[in-house]
Amino acid sequence: MKLCFQNDNICVYSLKDWVKLRKEYRIIGEYLGSSQATPTLPIKLLPEEAIFLINKNVAKLIQYPKLLVEPTDDCFKEYNKLQVDLQQAEQKIYKEYRKKELKPYIDKIVIAKQRKLNDSVSTSSVLNEELNRMKVTQENIIWPTLTEPLDCVKGESIEVPKSILMKRTTPTKILVFTDLWEKGYYVTCGKKFGGDFLVYAGDPIAFHAIHIIRCIEDPLKPLHTSELVAFGRLGTSVKKKSVLATKTNETVNYITINWLDL
Questions:
Q1: Do 9 and 31 belong to one domain?
Q2: Do 12 and 44 lie in a common domain?
Q3: Distance (Å, whole) CA 155 – CA 83
């Protein structure tokens, strides 16, 4: 499968590839797309996830040269036309849906309107007023889910060397991610909890994380007591085990920090 490397992001656009990554390889990634409150493709992978897949000969890293070129005026015009067309199409769909939704209640709405205005109003005018209450704008438009790169970047691609990704991670993080994956866990980004990785016993859609992993690059470098205390308390506050991971001769060592209130 192809991992698209653009703007320092490693993206997966294909729905088929996304399903395969999640089901067969326990690779979750992070949603980049969004349609209102619903996350959508593409997904962004961690450097460790991408390197793991490349090492397993499951994927290759590619780049689309056309995306490196400054967009032309014609591209912006095409984009603006697409947005206008989408807004008009969604406005039409919304009105049809809203019309069906109002049909059982429109008579009651008309009567209530007449009482409020103390005047007669037609059903069609009330219906049109209700249908025009909501406008599809740039802020609330629902963009389609991208299941592959846009047409303008299809075709020509170049393969990117794995060394590019190595600059965005460390050998310790790569080894720790691989070790946790081989133990059967699901592993995701742990930055929001102050770590490098979050570890799950099953798919995160059904399980909560059980460990916060922080990778220590130099196991001989002393850690300040305040760092250990803060990391241990953080794990306890979010009901997860705080774990330090180090690498020694290609072997991963784990140390769990437990916080006890005495």
A1: yes
A2: yes
A3: 24
> CA 98, CA 53: separation in Å to the nearest integer?
46
Does the pTM surpass 0.70? The reply is yes
Span 7-65, pLDDT tens digits: 889 999 888 999 999 999 999 999 886 655 667 788 999 999 999 999 999 999 998 88
| Structural contact between residues 234 and 225, judged by C-beta atoms closer than 8 angstroms | no
Catalytic residues: 200, 208, 240
Looking at the fold, whether 46 and 161 belong to one and the same domain comes out as: yes
Q: Does 250 share its domain with 182? A: yes
The pLDDT tens digits for 58-89 are 999 998 887 777 777 887 888 788 888 888 99
Are 160 and 58 members of one domain? yes
178 and 159 in a common domain: no
* Dihedral sign, Cα of residue 218, residue 160, residue 39, residue 37: positive
Separation between Cα atoms, residue 52 and residue 178, nearest integer Å: 7
Question: Do residue 160 and residue 174 come from a single domain?
Answer: no
Tell me the C-alpha distance between 56 and 68, whole Å: 28
Instruction: Look up the domain containing 186 and give its range.
Output: 170-256
CA distances from 217 to 122, 183, 191, 213, 221 (A): 74, 21, 17, 13, 9
Q: In this structure, are 161 and 181 located in the same domain?
A: no
